[in-house]
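README: folding subset

This subset contains proteins for which both the sequence and a predicted structure token string are available. Records are stored as plain text. Below is the entry for NADH dehydrogenase (584 residues), shown exactly as it appears on disk.
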Amino acid sequence: GGAELTATLPFLPDLPIRLVGSPLTATLALVVAAVAAMVLTYAAGYMARDPERPRFFGTMLMFVAAMQLLVLSGDWITLLAAWEMIGFASYLLIGFWHGREGVPGAATRAFLYTRTADLGLYLAAFLLIGIAGTSEISATLSTTGTPALIAGLLLLFAAMGKSAQVPMQDWLMRAMAGPTPVSALLHSATLVAAGAILLIRTAPMLPGGALLAIGIVGGVTAVVTGLMALAATDLKRLLAASTASQYGLMLIAVGAGAPVAALLHLIAHAAIKSALFLGAGVFQHDRESTDLDTLAGAGRARPGIFAGFALAALALAGLPPLAAFYSKDAILAAALASPSAVWLLPLALAGSVLTGAYMGRALKVLWSGAAEKPHNKVPLMAVGMGILVALAATLGLVFTPLEAMLGAHLAEPVWVVPVMGLAVGLAGLALGWLLTPARLLGPLLAQARNGFPLAGGMDALVVRPALALARLCDRLDAWIIRRVVLGGIVAGTQALSRRIERAEAGLLALVNAVGQLNLSLGQISLRTDRDTIDRAIFGLVDRTIALGSRARRLQSGFIHREMALTVAGIALVTGVLLAAPLYF
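--- output ---
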């Protein structure tokens, strides 16, 4: 089956990360890359006026990278990490327009459905690792017996969630709340394909009991979701239900022991379904709705886009020589040759008839009605869609060499198989074009539009219990915050407040003491200044003034008195001078 390249990176003890480039993983990686490139080209035009374009393209690229990691994973640890990443990225993409009514609920529902089913993958991976003693996927596929049966059923449960198989199909129809490029990518070769890819890669390990369960689940899904698509009143919901139905056909092939047939249909479906979604996005741009009544005649307004949409629709219905004609023939041949043909073949034929019926109905709605001339051009959107339509028409030519590369040759179908495939495809197209859903489905119409809920459906089993548990956890969390966290904070705050109050009281006492000391020093300073310094200064001043007053009396102004004082003074000085020698 060709060369295989392995890259190993150290991680946990005895559990390294492995990337494997085998013919199968390389083919899947090429399909993912090709579809993603065309969808992103289309998205450049579709999201041209959206202010959140950087967030959109960043999340889309993260999603594509995670999907590539998933298909190239060589060990269960890496696969689980990639599985988680695509789940998270799909939640962000489905809820991209989270401000619109109903979008957050759709994203949450998709997350809860797929996360519930993811438990199956975790349990299966841990079981296989424990038995094989290694996380290498190829080594664990040698598991046999009861462990292989249990692991196979657990892997089926995981695939049912991701690939929207009955009874977990409801989330996929609600996921249409995201932008059209998101729907085209998720529904073609990535998120929804992950479940089928998981079963295709692990098919060598699956025992007969697991294969029968896989085939029955796929067959029931092909019919149930086909009826839902036929009853849909919205084009994108019709295509979403169709996605689940087509992956149901792939599970029939896996259950019939022909995983290569499932792979061929996965490749054909990737190009076909992404082209159909991109065409629906163009019509949505023109009419600002995907409601089928609103889209009546939208195909006439854009004959080129309608031609591409019609070619992809005919390919999905299985008309030759388009891609799905070959892959559906391979599925029918596998179902016919299977030991469980009595169950699988009727379900595969019914799913194929319904495929033609809902695509015929979609074509009639788009072509019937008045054509309103569109006001905008969509060159980038047309380029992305056109390349995918070309692939949808021609991919069947590479299936034979692809089988040889994979080293898995399908049995040549007997002449009745292509006849049956063509007959059911044409019959379905005719029924969908000529008859209304009400006439085709009769009393099943209301149930089909409601998603065939049983006992409330998975909402009652998954969503409501999960949301109730979330509300309970929220109340518990609030109680813990209020009683424990906030209570501790309040108690600590109160204790700290008391300490601060005591510190403030001590500081205030110290301030008061310092203030009293300052006041006392001020009083002493005041008394010293007033009673000592001021008194001395003012006393000197008073005595000086008094002395001056007395000295002023000597200044009488009379000459005879001045002369007498002068003579007395001279006499006094003379006397002093004469007496001085007697003492010195």
